[in-house]
Write a structure and sequence with these properties.
3 domains; nine-stranded antiparallel β-sheet; 27% helix; alpha+beta; Rossmann fold; D-amino Acid Aminotransferase, Chain A, domain 1; binds magnesium ion; Dna Ligase, domain 1; binds adenosine-5'-diphosphate; 18 strands
Length: 348
Amino acid sequence: MSKIILGIIGGGQLGSMLSIAAKKLNIKTIIFCDDIDAPAKNFCDEFIFGKYDDKEKILEFVDKTNIITYEFENIPYETLNEINKKKSVLPKPSINRLIQHRLAEKDFINKLNIRTTQYKFVEKKSDIETSKDFLPGILKTTTMGYDGKGQYLINKIEDIEILNIDFSRQYILEKLVKLKKEISVIITRFSSNSYEIYEPIENIHEDQILKYSKIPAEISKTIFDESKEWAINIAEELNYIGTLCVEFFIDRNENLYVNEIAPRVHNSGHLTINAYNISQFENHVRAVCSLDKISLKKIANAKMVNLIGNQIELYRQNIKLNKNEFFFDYLKKEIKEKRKMGHITTLL
Ligand code: ADP
Ligand code: MG
């Protein structure tokens, strides 16, 4: 068989790790990204710079590839749909459209009888003023949010006045959950009822950005089983192909909620590179390229620490790592506050 050429839209750290996984499988990668300095440039076989609505550039990219996937969800639906007419886009553009919109995403999850936080659609100031039951709550833009961007904490109605909320955008208002813990479940689905699933990962966020992940998660057997069951349900219902991550909240009364779905590989799954025989990245490439599904085996327990902003600097000075420690530098050109620059995984 001739060599598969996988197109990846997006050139961040996830695109880099997908490229590294593909290389191991003898699959060539071409990355399309709107950032000329995209870190994945360092890891892919070919890099194409262009805007996500530049039809000509996208066509050039599509012509060179066999299959197309993406590393982040905020890609215009029109772009993915156009590409899908020429080459297969996986996960399907319609799935991405559903999940990139917080309201559609939450409505979908609730239809499956899976619990989410209480939420309501907000278009104007008065929609919040009449929503006392949802306070304290978090106002989130319906689209384009990540790492806590586009979110406002609203404790009481009066807060709206000082927050300077941009009402030209649409939001959902979510009731604040009294969090005991956050976990995520990563699943790679190959076809109907054929999937590999990783054990739940425990996550700690700082400033709404993921800081620590670890396996095993310290959770009850009920939560362990229920979170996996819900992730399987979601993947099956979406008829999903590839790796998907479900983020969960556990409240102080041991209730499980789905927070959100990521239709892609996920930061909390970086530890799968070292802790499993097959990483979430390799599994994603295997699924979208129709390669064999291999049974997952955990090699070790693990924890992962994200290096945010200038926390990377110390590690760039060649500090000595132990044999069970693995340091990844995303090779981002510019260090920015709150920017994920790298991570360290420790096998336990
Ligand atoms: P993003 O798309 O930015 O990841 P999330 O909805 O996952 O947005 O929110 C980021 C983090 O903010 C969550 O992981 C959690 O720590 C906190 N958070 C978000 N919504 C709630 C909520 N309703 N109750 C409590 N904490 C929340
Ligand atoms: Mg999130």
